[in-house]
Specification:
Elements lengths: L2 E6 L7 H14 L3 E5 L2 H7 L2 E4 L26 H13 L4 E6 L1 H12 L4 E5 L15 H22 L2 E6 L6 H10 L3 E3 L7 H13 L5 E6 L5 H12 L3 E5 L11 H19 L5 E6 L2 E6 H4 L8 H10 L2
Parallel strand pairs: 1-2, 1-4, 4-5, 5-10, 6-8, 6-9, 7-8
Antiparallel strand pairs: 2-3, 10-11
Bound molecules: adenosine-5'-triphosphate.
Adenosine-5'-triphosphate binds next to helix 4.
Length: about 325
Amino acid sequence: MKTIGILTSGGDAPGMNPAIRAIVRAGIFNGFRIMGIRQGYSGLIDGDIYEMNLSSVADIIHRGGTMLRSARSDEFKTESGFKKALNVLDVFGIDSLIVLGGDGTLRGAKDLYNAGVPTIGIPCTIDNDCGYSDYTIGFFTAVETVVDAISKIRDTSTSHGRANVIEVMGRRCGDIALYAGLAGGAESIIIPEVEFDIDEVCKRAIQGKNRGKLHHIIVLAEGVGNAYEVAKDIQDKTSIDTRVTVLGYIQRGGNPTSYDRILASKMGNRAIELLLEGKSGRALGVKCNEIIDLEINEALDIEKKFNLDMYNTSKILSI
Ligand code: ATP
């Protein structure tokens, strides 16, 4: 019987749990032995590993976070840490590995594959910063959380006639800001991919005010800069009372949306199918609503393309 290890690493993302569930259930259904590795690469180095059964993943499809817990491990990036990880896989008889996480985590999976471990990578990060896949597991749940927050802030913004700068996550990727900004009807979206002009933001606020708008929502991606400085500039230049909300970690938590649960279930099942077909060194993704798999070395070299059309649409609709 072949033994598959699973780990979740880097920032947790809503949808990791349904993906773990899919891997365990599809794996056992197909006759594999499944080992859960706790706390990402750090737990792999420490041998924090246990055998999972069908009940191990009961009652988790709807839960955020990751039941296997997550960690960032600098030791894994060292030669000695990496060797320890390889040795632990050997000791526990793990023949292949399914790794769930963001870009850094998938680079770790690539290194393991290049060192001879049959590995499959599944992109799980709220940032949606993966160039080879349209979406990553967790992204749309984070967008829902931000849209919900925008709607609530818009209510109070309207009542007081204020502007609000809402800072969202995404590291150097503006997708959370872009998608949530469009869905939430934000007047301005400030993202790292498009050069930002404070005078234009202010002009839009003044224009909106002059035509009777009571609120002005500015969604700012964390990769751009300091939300408090942006808010101060807007207030100084427009005299509109401007407040700041930094949404922070609420964007990483919460029950995964149906879309993320379905994506996670399909990718988890597909990872097992690939191993059954004798394939590894693959990174799973989604393109035009189809689950795809690419050679992991090539996949991680594909640059993330920014959706400029969507950005321009949001600008037109929020005049
Ligand atoms: P998120 O984008 O949600 O933060 P992530 O997977 O990108 O998730 P990282 O902290 O970048 O998060 O990576 C998680 C772990 O993966 C690191 O702590 C490290 O152990 C490993 N890792 C990161 N980058 C590399 C790399 N270039 N090569 C090998 N391993 C890496």
